[in-house]
Design brief:
A: 113 residues, mainly beta, 58% strand, globular, B: 115 residues, 11 strands
Chain lengths: 113, 115
């Protein structure tokens, strides 16, 4: 069964600090992995997409990594801001024509001043 | 209006009611999706409409019925729902025809409560 596990479930940090969110998956065959940010009361917004051959990708203060061998991904947030408070969702898409992505439960991040 | 819009934003309905959720995308995309987001659970893909083809998650109950009259509009018709159907229903659209290759743009969602 395809699964995506995210950790931690929730995280509280002080403004300006760095943090790393984890995503482990069992989806196979693998096409790509996306990280989404979902603010309260809004729909998710894509931060990065990682394909099989990519190890690291950055989007401003967000840096995603992918280890396709161990089926692990991380999202590192540098110099956190209050606006980073949100839920971060890892989504793994299969290859082979399937339309059904597998979503993680998300990590709830709270940034305190 | 820009992006993906959804109406209503909030809906309370009884188990015997019939209601519909509406989604409209202003991005020129040709694929649209319905997702269910329940508390403490992962997002669940319900339906995909791509180039007039419909793909559905086989685990979705028949009390949910989608309709896609054109590439810009998507509806989710609801009837005889159960309390466990209470959730945030998200609509999304993408440029291409598969969920995996293209970035999906989400609407703000409809918060549904079934009493």
């Amino acid at each position: 069964k395809n699964q995506v596990e995210q950790s931690p479930q929730s995280l509280i940090i002080l403004e300006g600090k760095n943090c790393t969110l984890q995503c482990n998956y069992t989806v196979s065959p693998f096409s790509n992995l996306r990280w989404y940010k979902q603010d309260t009361g809004r729909g998710p917004v894509s931060l990065t997409i990682m394909t099989f051959s990519e190890n690291t990708k950055s989007n401003g203060r967000y840096t995603a990594t992918l280890d396709a061998d161990t089926k692990q991904s991380s999202l590192h947030i540098t110099a956190s801001q209050l606006s980073d408070s949100a839920s971060y969702i890892c989504v793994v898409n299969p290859s082979g024509g399937s339309y059904i992505p597998t979503f993680g439960r998300g990590t709830s991040l709270i940034v305190h001043p | 209006e820009t992006g993906v819009t959804q109406t209503p934003r909030h809906l309370v309905m009884g188990m015997t009611n019939k209601k519909s959720l509406k989604c409209e995308q202003h991005l020129g995309h040709n694929a649209m999706y319905w997702y269910k987001q329940s508390a403490k659970k992962p997002l669940e893909l319900m339906f995909v409409y791509s180039l007039e083809e419909r793909v559905e998650n086989n685990s979705v109950p028949s009390r949910f019925s989608p309709e896609c009259p054109n590439s810009s509009h998507l509806f989710l018709h609801l009837h005889t729902l159960q309390p466990e159907d209470s959730a945030l229903y998200l609509c999304a659209s993408s440029q291409g025809g598969t969920a995996s290759s293209y970035e999906q743009y989400f609407g703000p969602g409809t918060r549904l409560t079934v009493t």
